[in-house]
Specification:
Number of domains of chain D: 2
Chains: A mainly alpha, B mainly alpha, C mainly alpha, D mainly alpha
Oligomer: heterotetramer
CATH superfamily of the largest domain in chain D: NADH-ubiquinone/plastoquinone oxidoreductase chain 6, subunit NuoJ
Structural class of chain B: mainly alpha
Largest sheet of chain D: none
Helix content of chain D: over 70%
Number of domains of chain B: 1
Distance between the termini of chain D: 64 Å
CATH architecture of the largest domain in chain D: Up-down Bundle
Number of strands of chain B: 0
Helix content of chain B: over 70%
Largest sheet of chain B: none
Shape of chain B: elongated
Shape of chain D: globular
Radius of gyration of chain D: 20 Å
CATH topology of the largest domain in chain D: Four Helix Bundle (Hemerythrin (Met), subunit A)
Order of helices and strands of chain B: HHH
CATH topology of chain B: Helix Hairpins
Number of strands of chain D: 0
Distance between the termini of chain B: 59 Å
Radius of gyration of chain B: 17 Å
CATH class of the largest domain in chain D: Mainly Alpha
Number of helices of chain D: 6
Largest interface: B-D, 71 and 87 residues
CATH architecture of chain B: Orthogonal Bundle
Chain lengths: 118, 102, 321, 164
């Protein structure tokens, strides 16, 4: 079983190598001429002002948190999906309760407007 | 041969690293990251004990999954607190967040 | 041996997306009654090769005060995440890199790594448009990961396995399950389009408002890596769609003289590229959504529908038993 | 040295170096991104321990979701402007003492304890075994978790939203 994942690791390493290879070729072949104006970040043609980082709206976080909490359900649903056939009715009822509770959560987030992009 | 104690050594060191982060960082988000490291160290232990000591019901895996769930819940609530504190106090450094003093 | 296989496979996986760039240009030209690339090679077939050579000769520019390390690592991470998707795709009977026990869960997990690449790439550019594009992209991708995951779960529930090979073997689904499968397939298709940041879900790189989104500051080869990741995940999602909903390598009839593997490859690639063509067709036909519409579709339509769909699928499985 | 040992030491190095960067980086974005190799290394350790399902979940939830959320919050609050701010408090020597002491103590204990005989084999199909465990002996934990998730969803929304 760890052997399966050894393949994954080899793929990741080879993939990273293959992705870095053209960057190496560019480094060898491409011209280099640095002058300060070229490296100014693009801002519609005007000189950038302030920091690139600035205050972002909390709405990004609200979507992030809702995502994380609904993503966790998956931990419990995948094993359930695999053994449902074997365990039958009571496993279904257990999942019904589980998803019901989380449905309440979704309804709450919806009603409170946490899912609105305002 | 890699045995149980090898994994325990790694998890102990990871736990100590996480604790160091929690104790010395000023930024609340960085403290949360330290806590995540400590939880991961605990999880390594759970899974290692399942393999080497007690595979009944793979209960170490179950515990690890529940810890991951709780880590996510903790991160969500903790980060919400960070955002709230930042909005009111303009800082996320825990030694400057001292509302209780009034 | 493993390394050699990985290298060969990576070449193929890189070649596929490169070909898709050309296909996209040809198809868009066809839909818009243009000719498209036609000068390089017969019918412009070598256009991509010429483009690649050109990219190799262009200067890499790192913007002022950018974070050099993260700026360089982000595109590689995106490309590798797309490549790793292919590990569990079964191309023909016996032709799968590795049939992982947790196949479709692995697919979901690996594709979620892309978000980190995009977010850090956008931040490391030290450009307002890049950062905003990166954040938007992340918000969109995480929102659509959920319906995508639920579609995978419907299939897992119906077949009782997570391995992609066994899912193909379990098809066709029983007739009573068709409504469930169709709903899951539609949800998957919409979510996969949104995950790939394609029109009508291409908010993160809406050129009218955000220049080019998170890769505004990226010059040739690194930009190409982002493109590679994008087309790679498009191809991977189409291949997974074929595997889960279209019967994978199975076909209604067998071509004589090709053998099981040849037949499998023909059917699998045929179906996959048909899905790719469909997604390109959509891209060049529909306008872009607004971001609030986009998030509403995911959270208020797809997510509740797929949660109910999952329960129906579970009920069916218990009933059939 | 066989393949397993090689993989173990490589992964352990990845975990510990990554973890070191997480607690040590002055730049918070760097610290958050360093979580990625650390958590992937832990996932690799799970692979060596034959816990496939936990591995996949570790990548999906920890690397793909929790890290993203942490990055979000760093970008929403201070970004990298924290570089100009002192990142450590005055407890560094004390913390070094405590953590070093704890590590030495635990290591000293765990190399002395005779961990019983090797256990029997793990059940063959990991996701199935986990599912059976969740739905039969640990069903209460399973249902209570949904309540915990609900509670933190409600709590986080109430805390994070702007007051009307």
């Amino acid at each position: 079983m760890p052997l399966d994942w050894a393949y994954v690791a080899v793929f990741a390493l080879v993939g990273a190598g293959m992705a870095a290879l053209p960057l190496g070729i560019v480094w060898l072949l491409a011209p280099r001429s640095a002058y300060p104006q070229k490296r100014i970040p693009y801002e519609s043609g005007i000189v950038p002002f302030g920091e690139a980082w600035s205050q972002f709206h909390v709405r990004y976080y609200l979507f992030g948190l809702a995502f994380l909490l609904f993503d966790i359900e998956v931990i419990y649903i995948y094993p359930w999906a695999v053994v449902l056939r074997e365990l039958g009715g009571f496993a279904f009822v257990e999942m019904l309760i589980f998803l019901g509770v989380l449905g309440v959560g979704l309804a709450y987030a919806w009603k409170k407007g946490a899912l609105e992009w305002v | 041969m890699i045995g149980l104690s090898h994994y325990l050594v790694v998890s102990t060191l990871l736990f100590a690293l996480g604790l160091y982060g929690v104790l010395t960082r000023r930024n609340a988000v960085a403290i949360l990251m330290g806590i995540e490291l400590m939880l991961n160290a605990a999880n390594v232990n759970f899974v290692a004990f399942t393999k080497f000591v007690d595979p009944t019901f793979v209960r170490g895996h179950v515990a690890a999954l529940i810890v991951i769930t709780l880590a996510a819940c903790e991160a969500v609530v903790g980060l919400a607190l960070v955002i709230n504190a930042y909005r009111h106090l303009e800082t996320v450094n825990v030694d400057q967040v001292d509302l209780m003093k009034g | 041996m493993v390394v050699l296989a990985a290298v060969v496979f990576t070449f193929l996986a890189v070649g596929g997306p490169l070909f898709l760039v050309l296909a996209e240009r040809k198809i868009s030209a066809w839909i818009q009654a243009r000719v498209g690339p036609k000068h390089v090679g017969p019918h412009g077939l070598l256009q991509t090769v010429a483009d690649t050579l050109k990219l190799l000769y262009k200067e890499n520019i790192v913007p002022h005060r950018a974070d050099v390390v993260l700026f360089s690592v982000a595109p590689i991470l995106v490309a590798v995440a797309a490549l790793l998707d292919f590990v569990v795709i079964p191309f023909a009977p016996g032709w799968v890199v590795r049939d992982l026990n947790v196949g479709i869960l692995y697919f979901a997990a690996v594709s979620s790594l892309t978000v980190i690449g995009i977010l850090t790439g956008g931040w490391a550019s030290n450009n307002k448009y890049s950062l905003l594009g990166g954040l938007r992209s992340a918000a969109q991708m995480v929102s659509y990961e959920l319906p995508l995951g639920f579609s995978l779960l419907v299939v897992a529930t119906l077949t009782g396995t997570l391995s992609t090979v066994r899912i193909v073997e379990a098809q066709p689904y029983p007739a009573v399950a068709y409504p469930c499968v169709v709903v899951a397939a539609l949800v998957f298709l919409v979510a996969a389009t949104a995950e790939a940041n394609r029109i009508p879900f291409d908010l993160p790189e809406a050129e009218a408002e955000l220049v080019a989104g998170y890769f505004s500051e990226y010059t040739p080869m690194r930009f190409a890596l982002f493109q590679l990741g994008e087309y790679g995940s498009l191809l991977a999602s189409s291949a997974l769609f074929t595997t889960l909903f279209l019967g994978g390598w199975k076909g209604p009839f067998a071509f004589p003289g090709l053998g099981p593997v040849g037949n499998g490859l023909v059917w699998f690639l045929g179906k996959t590229y048909a899905v790719v063509f469909f997604l390109m067709w959509v891209r060049w036909t529909y306008p872009r959504f607004r971001i609030d519409q986009l998030l509403n579709i995911s959270w208020k339509l797809l997510l509740p529908v797929s949660m109910v769909n999952l329960l129906v699928a579970g009920l069916l499985v218990v009933g059939i038993r | 040295m066989n393949a397993e040992a090689l993989a173990f030491y490589a992964l352990a190095a990845m975990v510990l170096v990554g973890g070191g960067l997480v607690v040590q980086s002055r730049n918070l974005v760097h610290a958050a991104v360093s979580l990625v190799p650390t958590l992937l290394g832990v996932a690799g350790l799970y692979v060596l321990l034959h816990a496939e399902f936990v591995t996949a979940i570790q990548i999906l939830i920890y690397v793909g979701a929790i890290t993203v959320l942490i990055l979000f919050v760093i970008l929403l609050t201070e970004g990298a402007t924290g570089l100009r701010v002192r990142q450590r408090n005055e407890q560094v020597p004390l913390a070094l003492l405590v953590c070093g002491g704890l590590a030495v103590l635990l290591l000293g204990v765990l190399v002395r304890v005779p961990w019983g005989p090797a256990a029997g084999p793990l059940p063959p199909y990991n996701p199935g075994a986990v599912g059976r465990s969740f739905l039969m002996p640990y069903v209460l934990a399973f249902e209570v978790t949904s309540l915990v998730i609900l509670a933190s969803l409600v709590g986080a929304i109430v805390i994070a939203r702007r007051e009307e």
